[in-house]
Design the sequence.
């Protein structure tokens, strides 16, 4: 299945997909060394790269290079997401032969998902939320 200019998948005629759902995806831990600094909310945008078996193989920082605090938040993001697991993305291609009989071929494919990780302190307690 070819990827478009933005990297997203485009389904071919007669093709569908399923899967690519998180099995484990615990949020990152707020870096302990930054709690006492009482920093304002920080958001890290990351792309999680997943192989055809559903294993995370890379986590990329989508934000422009920033300060040491951002680097610490991204390290926490990277470390957590590298332990995530997904159901494989399965591509289903339907085929019709000359007699009108239908069959299908199933294959797995790598995929990526973009996330925003929000690090904040609420009443002095670290809270990290994740949105896709």
Sequence:
């Amino acid at each position: 299945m070819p990827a478009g200019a933005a990297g997203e998948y485009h389904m071919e005629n007669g093709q569908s997909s399923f899967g690519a759902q998180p099995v484990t995806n615990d949020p990152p831990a707020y870096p302990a060394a930054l709690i006492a600094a009482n920093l304002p909310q920080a958001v890290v945008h990351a792309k999680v790269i997943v192989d055809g078996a559903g294993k995370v193989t890379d986590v990329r920082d989508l934000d422009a290079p920033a300060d040491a605090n951002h680097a610490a938040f991204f390290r926490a993001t990277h470390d957590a997401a590298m332990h995530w697991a997904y159901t494989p993305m399965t591509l289903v291609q339907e085929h019709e032969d000359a007699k009108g009989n239908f069959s299908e071929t199933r294959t797995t494919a790598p995929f990526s998902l973009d996330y925003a990780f929000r690090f904040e302190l609420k009443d002095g307690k670290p809270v990290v939320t994740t949105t896709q």
Q: What stands out?
A: The helical segments are 32-35, 68-81.
